[in-house]
């Protein structure tokens, strides 16, 4: 079907997945998830 996936397609898929993740997990869970991955951002 599609031999070559363009950069625009990848970005679109990432954005759709991001919106899906936000709607499923919610902003609160995402905040906790970022805090686990990148604690330095919230250390100050």
The number of helical elements comes to: 1
The biggest beta sheet, please? none
One letter per element, helices H and strands E, the order comes to H
Which class best fits the helix and strand makeup? mainly alpha
Note the overall shape. Answer: elongated
Low-confidence stretches: none
Helix fraction? over 70%
- Mean pLDDT over all positions: 76
**First-last Cα distance:** 50 Å
Percentage beta strand = under 5%
Rg over C-alpha atoms, rounded to the nearest angstrom = 15 Å
What is the total tally of β strands?
0
Summarize the entry for a quick read.
The protein is 70% helix and 0% strand. With 44 residues, it is mainly α.
What does this protein look like?
The chain has 44 residues and is mainly α. It is 70% helix and 0% strand. It is built from one helix and no strands. The N and C termini lie far apart (50 Å). The mean pLDDT is 76. The chain crosses the membrane at residues 12-34. Keywords: Membrane, Transmembrane, Transmembrane helix.
Write the layout of secondary structure elements.
Blueprint: H1 7-37
Overview features:
1 helix, mainly alpha, 44 residues
């Amino acid at each position: 079907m599609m031999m070559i996936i363009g950069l625009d397609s990848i970005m679109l898929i990432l954005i759709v997945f991001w919106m899906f993740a936000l709607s499923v997990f919610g902003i609160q869970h995402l905040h906790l998830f970022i805090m686990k991955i990148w604690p330095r951002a919230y250390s100050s």
